[in-house]
Amino acid sequence: MRRFILVTAILISLTAILSSCDGPEEESKKESNKNSAEKVESFIEKEMESESANGPTVRVWVTTPEKSKLLSEEEQFRFGVGSGEISAPITIHVDESVTYQQMDGFGAAMTDSSAWLIANKLNLEQREKLMRDLFDHEQGIGISYMRLPMGASDFAHDFYTYNDKPAGEIDPKLKGFSIEHDKAYIIPALKQAREINPDLKLMASPWSVPAWMKSSESLITGYLKEEFYPSYANYFVKFIQGYEAEGVPMDAITLQNEPYYEPPGYPGMFMDATEQIEVIRNHLGPAFRDNGITTKIITWDHNWDHPEYPIQVLDDPEANAFISGSAFHGYTGEVRNQQQVHDAHPDKDIYFTESSGGEWATDFGNNLKWDLQNLIIGSTRYWSKVVLKWNLALDEDHGPKKGGCQDCRGFVTINSQSGEVTLNEEYYAFGHASKFVKSGAYRIETNQSEVIENVAFKNPDGSKVLIGLNSSTESQLFEVHFGDQKFTYTLPAGAVATFVW
Fold first, then answer.
1. Residue-wise pLDDT tens digits, 95-122
2. Residue 225, exposed/middle/buried by CB under 10 A (0-12, 13-18, 19+)?
């Protein structure tokens, strides 16, 4: 570097001397000196580029709130040698030596409605393109984790479970259990997704057990009768074994979707913490153990506003031994509450499993910002190893639906008449993570900024991923430091960028 400065100083001095010469050939000398100065300037620029931009190549993808850029890859650049001086008002330090949770992935839910649309409203060419847009890391956004309702939710053609009986009949030994319903279009869709992305993992959650197990004797409202706790545990065993036989393994299950909510118009079931403790400790955990099932058991699976529920369940040592973690939804409460559960039980994983976009929030930029702040950045900084939205795909009328949410929005909208697919803001928001953060990556240390909110990961292949959101109303210049190297970047107001090196 000193050699470069010395040579540059000599060349500049020589140019200055030449430009001051007088004589009969003054005009010719001036032109010659001008050319010399230009050559010196070009030399300096090339030397500076060679000296400073000698670090790893950085690729960057940007989405802007007005949609002029949608996961658009920008021009590559390189890290330069940091001088130790801060030349930008905001500095983000990335430290790969400090690691946090290991990631499983980002995605959405393959509801009955989503799978049915993919199977029935797209031709072969449209279906192949959409599935690659969703699950391929190169062509699409590389979704690597999905949630699957065990039976009907509010996004299904009909209410069903895997062991429905006429009123007054019961089947404690589950002789009539069958996943035949799912073989028509749900399992084929999941298989296709797993063929495209072999890293794809699945989590299953029931909205309701069969009506004959419940106090209400209906899929609507009610609680699980204690006499059917063993049947309930066996219901999970048979489901996991049935899917395994179809070549679709389950990474995890939750005991009950939203156990503190009994919806009046679609399947649901109340289950308090003491019930979950009893079921896990004395029935589900032992049933998994005795049947050699390694699928993870996850507690809670409801909103951020009740962190005391999973803590209570995990505080029971016998139930705790069977539990891998806790799951959260994002409709009420604050993402920071995940930290309480992590701090109480740091050996257990955190999952974020549901939040929906919808017609109540139609501003692309605001939706992009909320998902990045609370889910992609917020939830992972508060220990989530999985981050999921709700429906993967819905039609132009926010369905098919049966009760429940009337204006929810999926990652994509499939026009039921033409098969045209619209990629929604959730697709792009989650794509900034799912496309680049691979299964098995670790979150690594970065300093948080109130203006350029961020999170970083280290992939199994050693590549680093930094996701940054400019949450301010003005364009922002910031600097990224990695070891003794750095780069500067300007991000428009409300925009998000993913940097990979």
1. 999 999 999 999 999 999 999 999 999 9
2. middle
